[in-house]
Amino acid sequence: MTKTWFITGTSTGLGRLLTERLLTRGDRVVATVRRPDALETLTAQYGDQLLVLTLDVTDTHAIKKVVTDAFQRVGNIDVVVSNAGYALFGAAEEASDAQIERQIATNLMGSIQLIRAVLPHLRAQGGGRIVQVSSEGGQIAYPNFSLYHATKWGIEGFVESVAQEVAPFGIDFLIVEPGPTGTNFVDGLDRAQIMACYEDTPAGDVRRGVASGAFAIKGDAARTVDAMIMTADMQHPPLRLALGSTAYSSISQALSQRLSLLENQKDRALSADRLN
């Protein structure tokens, strides 16, 4: 049975590949881009199977307008994929105010407002699924990605709460957490102005590692997208889906360490309760 998907950020990377995969298997896709010509080749190939809409997710008014337009033009939408993103690279002190605002506006506010915009339509049609593309960086943290992590941790908390709010309406969520994957992610990093005082710190180490290509990128983009689609097709998908061996091991290690720290302070935690 074919489905209709709404996907943001489809010009490149996982969003583009996801769109191509779904069109190939016969699904219908509403794809949003910031540049109207970004998907010309796919439009020429797939015709009415693909509807391309222009959207900058930092524009809340535009999100509401485009979402309403999409539902009016295609009817029911089975799966909404919040994929558009931006990554700021640099120590927190190095980033400019404008860069920080863009990071939060794109990854956090953009995703929040997209989800808020689609909920009334999904309720009206009797349910649907929302896929939030996050990252392993939604559960772990590396130096030089502090603002990026802030948005990914933030959107995961938002989704986990909203999922409980809208479950009675037949709406569910899938949070996708890829590790380092063979896309244009590194090339697309917005780099903060370097401060010399961070050269001999963990932030400097990460910066040099990224520049030298020392960090292994084990994730395959096509296999990552295939796993996303397979999981999104499940009747009852898990709330979170880690993708790639790096994501699996790093998230597992982080959760184990966090649980160990919590258990070690159990007595102190319980001591804060009222005595009566």
UniProtKB/TrEMBL annotation:
Keywords: Oxidoreductase
Record-linked NCBIfam families: PRK06482.1
Molecular function GO terms recorded: oxidoreductase activity
CDD domains noted in UniProt: 17beta-HSD-like_SDR_c
Tagged with keyword Oxidoreductase: yes
Upper taxonomic lineage: Bacteria, Pseudomonadati, Pseudomonadota, Betaproteobacteria, Burkholderiales
Protein name (Swiss-Prot/TrEMBL): Short-chain dehydrogenase/reductase
Alphabetized Pfam families for the sequence: adh_short
Provenance organism: Alcaligenes pakistanensis
InterPro entries the UniProt entry points to: NAD(P)-bd_dom_sf, SDR_fam, SDR_oxidoreductase
Family stated for the protein in its record: Belongs to the short-chain dehydrogenases/reductases (SDR) family.
